[in-house]
Amino acid sequence: MLPYVETVMPAELDPDAALMLRVKQGDATAFTTLVEKYKQPVLNLAWRTVGDPTEAEDLAQNVFVQAWKSADRYQATAKFSTWLFTIARNLCLNEIRRRSRHPAESLDQTRDDDDQPTHQIVDKRSSIAPDELLRDELEHKVDAALAALPENQRTALLLCRQEELSYEEIAAVLGCSLSATKSLIHRARETLKARLKPYLHSGVWEEKK
């Protein structure tokens, strides 16, 4: 189902919505501009949601394919980013539901990945500075903490990091109230803080039992 947002957002107040209205008239150059601006944020959301970089790339591509196909029905009722991220989240959730119905496919993919020749794996740690190693390790721990969040908390927090999205717009993407959205973001931040504090304090990542 395509997203629909009640809040009226005149196109002149949102340049991206104005671009999408040009796409609606057949302007492919305008669509390319939108893709270039949003491809990385959409890819980040997909990757954080499904946890597989290859699948995330496919999902991100499908987001823009669906946006292009839906151009003739597009209405500038909200910011373009709200409309696009709603499409992205819906496709990601569809993929999660598909995996839950076909767990064997996910297991087969894991086996295929495990079967890759080990000689192709290169240990680059010996040539990386200690500070960079610590930064990379911390990023890995942040990724793990994000992945452990419930989907709605994780999505709310990731969208909150997109500067162009307000709490109201995040609520529209999630399909929940403003107060619920603020609560999701607060709980996500508190959970991450609790998960990362032991590592930041001691340098040792403590897995919760």
Describe it.
It is a single chain. The chain is mainly alpha-helical and 209 residues long. The chain has helices at 15-24, 28-50, 53-69, 80-101, 103-114, 130-147, 151-160, 167-174, 178-202. The protein folds into two domains: 1-116, Orthogonal Bundle (Rna Polymerase Sigma Factor, Chain: A), CATH 1.10.1740.10; 127-209, Arc Repressor Mutant, subunit A (Orthogonal Bundle), CATH 1.10.10.10. The longest helix is centred in the C-terminal third of the chain and has 25 residues, at 178-202.
Question: What distinguishing features does this structure have?
Answer:
209 residues, Rna Polymerase Sigma Factor, Chain: A, 69% helix, Arc Repressor Mutant, subunit A, disordered N terminus, single chain, 2 domains, globular, mainly alpha
